[in-house]
Amino acid sequence: MAASVTSVFLYVKDVRRSLEFYNEVVGAEVLQVHPEQEAGPLTLAILRIDAFVIMLNAQEPHAEEFADARLGVGIHLQIQVDDVDAFHQRCLDEGAILSVSGEPTDQDWGWREFALRDPDGFVWSIYQDNAAGQWTG
Fold this sequence. Notes:
- This protein has 137 residues and is of the alpha/beta class.
- It has a four-stranded mixed beta sheet with strand order 1-4-3-2, covered by helices on one side. Strands 5-8-7-6 form a four-stranded mixed beta sheet, with helices on one face.
């Protein structure tokens, strides 16, 4: 049976703030936004990076489920780009939080990458594959 990963569903504290981060910093295309009620705060935003979908859902209605959890802990996501240095500069220009790893670094396995933290603490490795998919480490 063939399968493919198509999306991630992230619970966030502020859907609008996360939407702006993923759209303006990461470059995700906004597909849909939904308020719980007309003119109310956003409760769901759906964005796309290439064929991958990011669904941002308001954490507040699920607060009980998150009582003992910290957002962003226990998950590490990845985005492949053609030019990691240009993407890094874009993040700096947009004021993104790059405190996870700083500058792009060449890795033993053939990637050049840096880590980026979103407003809720989810960590993304932004990488350029210089090994053509063949890990060398």
